[in-house]
Amino acid sequence: MHRTIISIVLGCFLTITFTSLHLAQAQGTTASARRAAIARSFVLGQGVGKKVKIELLNGTEIKGIVSRIGDNSFELVRKPGEQPLAFDYDAVARIKKAGWSNASLIALGTGIGVAAVITIVAIAVATVKIDPFPDGFRKSR
Q1: Over the stretch 50-92, which tens digit does the pLDDT of each residue have?
Q2: CA-only gyration radius of the chain, Å
Q3: How far is residue 69's CA from residue 19's CA, in Å, rounded to a whole number?
Q4: What sign for the dihedral angle of Cα 122, 128, 129, 133?
C-alpha cells in the first residue's frame, strides 16, 4: 500500500517537474523568436532610409539610418559615408523610431500656438487706446 502511494506521488512529482522545465524552455524560445519577429516587422514597417534607435541584448544602444533590410538581419549607418553595421534580429532587445515622439511634437506645436495667441493679444491691448471713462472717472455734479 505504501509503495503504491509513494510511486504515485513520485510519478506525479516527476511529471510536473519535467513538464515545467519543458514549458520554461519553450517560453524562452518563443520570447526570443517573438522579439526577433517584432524587430523585423518594425524595420520593415519603417523602411530603408529611416532613423531608428536600437538596444541590443548586451545593453548597447545605437542610433542610425536603416541602409539594408534582409531576412535575418538589417544594416544601420551611423553617419553618411561610414561603413554600415549589420545586426541580427535575434540580437535586438528593443527598437524604436529615433527622434521626437508624436506626443512631443503635438505638445510643441500647441505651446507655440498658445504663445502666438498670447503675443497677439498683448500687442493688441498695448496698441489700442480705449478710454473706458470718456467723460472722466468722476462726473462733477
Answers
A1: 899 988 888 889 899 998 898 888 999 988 888 998 998 888 8
A2: 33
A3: 39
A4: negative
DSSP β-bridge partners for residue 55 = 61, 94
Amino acid at 86: A
Cell of 81: 559615408
Q: Quote the CA–CA distance of 84 and 87 in Å, as a whole number.
A: 10
Q: Chain-centre distance of CA 120, in angstroms?
A: 37
DSSP string, the chain: -HHHHHHHHHHHHHHHHHHHHHHHHHHHHHHHHHHHHHHHHHHHHH-TT-EEEEEETTS-EEEEEEEEE-SSEEEEESSTTSPPEEEEGGGEEEEEE-S--HHHHHHHHHHHHHHHHHHHHHHHHHH----S-TT-SS---
How does pLDDT run across 29-61, given as a tens digit for each residue?
A: 677 788 888 888 888 888 888 899 988 888 889
